[in-house]
Write a structure and sequence with these properties.
The protein is an alpha+beta fold. The chain is 42% helix and 21% strand. It has helices at residues 4-9, 11-20, 26-66, 70-106, 132-139, 157-163, 169-175, 186-204, 218-224, 249-254, 311-328, 375-380, 405-415, 429-432, and strands at 126-130, 167-168, 182-183, 208-210, 215-217, 236-237, 242-244, 260-262, 268-277, 296-306, 333-337, 349-357, 362-371, 383-385, 392-394, 396-404, 417-418, 421-423, 436-438. β17 and β18 (421-423) form a beta hairpin. The chain is elongated. The chain starts with a helix and ends with a strand.
């Protein structure tokens, strides 16, 4: 959440940033936060004055008793009792105001960086890089322009999954429901190959692998900002008040909740493979067919904890890592800087990676790489001790998909069709054990 210092120091900049995210009633909400905080500070000032008077009187009571002024001493004792009662009232008022302020801050999104473009929705995102032209000139495996033999066989992945017996969507509906596919044979091998490939690449890049729980408590949801913002999109286990994770970002980042790191430990680099669960309430239509949008899916997440001075460099390194994965998978991709209206609740700056589906003729998002500045760290109380002056400051947190599997699988199947079957990118062949998924006879 936003820090009070940030709001007080530059209220107008905060309001402008929230308006860029199209946060309703930005000014009124920030003014309300400040009003509550002023109420808390007023109670704090009065309490400090009461305690000072209480201490002063307490010291005089002994002297009055020694001087035989018992009646006056008793009157002072009564005054101390009144002050203690008032101090307790003020303490309660402070706690009430602080809790009210915190609950309101939980509802306010992060302020986007100046670099974030203006815009309302995905159509306003800024494309900063694309390799689609190079892929269509022959640098990527999927190349319909140069391979007319497969032009007529450009099938979408849900048909390929059926014909090659890779993924059974109907069986998933039988076992659980829509959005929970069953992977079979080469389809299951492809999943496992991608997971191992992504984890190995992350390890080489210096990330420590974590195997976290896939259910988290309420405090963890609040720590990374899924709660209360995405409460309706998370699967909730009512009996134990636990949530199925929508991403490994939640348990991995919460490792550092209430932790003070030494500056020399930064940046912390972690990666994790988990199943992810999202209700995706309200999603329907052709754009969610097949693997395009699932309720359960596999994903490898990379997470960094860093100092404010180095977080921009960390963000760029994470972007380069994700781009390198897509290049090794020989997929056509593009990179977008998200506009204010399309950014997540918690991000200060976010880039999306999308791969191009030759069969669906559309871009499919496969990764979001975000810098959260100190927003999550403030919720988490994730801090570091500066080496120079030992001062304790909030960390910056960052995370990214590296990568989410469903749409990667969709693009690999659709873009790599050939008369012999479905080609496997060279980097993935050692993990798959085959160069091609053979065509069904």
């Amino acid at each position: 959440m936003l820090t009070i210092k940030k709001i007080v120091d530059d209220k107008e900049a905060v309001i402008r940033g929230l308006e860029k995210k199209h946060f309703a009633d930005a000014r009124a909400t920030i003014e309300k936060v400040l009003e509550i905080d002023n109420r808390r500070k007023a109670a704090q000032m009065e309490k400090d004055a009461v305690l000072a008077e209480q201490n002063k009187i307490a010291k005089s009571i002994g002297l009055l008793m020694k001087q035989g002024q018992r009646e006056e001493a008793e009157a002072q004792k009564a005054r101390v009792a009144e002050l203690k009662s008032r101090s307790a009232q003020l303490e309660e008022a402070m706690k009430t105001a602080e809790n009210e302020r915190t609950q309101l801050l939980y509802t306010i999104p992060n302020v986007p960086y100046d670099l974030v473009p203006e815009g309302v929705a995905a159509a306003d995102n800024l494309v900063v890089k694309s390799n689609l032209r190079e892929c269509r000139e022959g640098d990527c495996v999927g190349n319909w322009d140069m391979n007319p033999d497969v032009e007529s066989a450009r099938l979408p992945h849900w048909e390929l999954a059926r014909d090659y017996d890779l993924i059974d969507f109907d069986l998933g509906v039988k076992i659980t429901g829509a959005g929970f596919p069953v992977y079979k044979g080469y389809g299951a091998r492809l999943q496992r190959a991608l997971i191992n490939f992504f984890l190995d690449e992350a390890r080489v890049a210096g990330y420590t692998e974590i195997m976290p729980p896939t259910v988290v408590n309420e405090a963890s949801g609040y720590g990374t900002g899924q709660l209360p913002d995405k409460e309706g999109q998370m699967y909730h286990c009512d009996l134990d008040n636990l949530y199925l994770i929508p991403t490994a970002e939640v348990p991995v980042t919460n490792i550092f909740r209430d932790v003070i790191l030494d500056e020399k430990e930064l940046p912390v680099r972690c990666c994790a493979y988990t199943q992810c669960f999202r209700r995706e309430a309200g999603s329907y239509g052709k754009d969610v067919r097949g693997l395009n949008r699932l309720h359960e899916f596999s994903k490898i997440e990379i997470v960094r904890i860093d100092s404010p001075e180095h977080s921009d460099a960390s963000h760029k390194e994470m972007l380069a890592h994700v781009e390198g994965l897509l290049q090794k998978l020989e997929l056509p991709y593009r990179v977008l800087r998200l506009c204010g209206g399309d950014m997540s609740f918690t991000a200060a700056l976010c880039y999306d990676f999308e791969v191009y589906s030759e069969a669906q003729h559309r871009w499919l998002e496969v990764s979001s790489v975000s810098n959260f500045d100190s927003y999550q760290a403030n919720r988490l109380h994730c801090r570091y001790r500066r080496a120079e002056d030992k001062k304790i400051e909030l960390c910056h947190t960052l995370n990214g998909s590296a990568l989410a599997l469903p749409r990667i699988v969709a693009a690999l199947l659709e873009n790599n069709q050939c008369p012999e079957g479905i080609r496997i990118p060279k980097a993935l062949q050692p993990y798959m054990g085959v160069e091609i998924i053979p065509a069904v006879k």
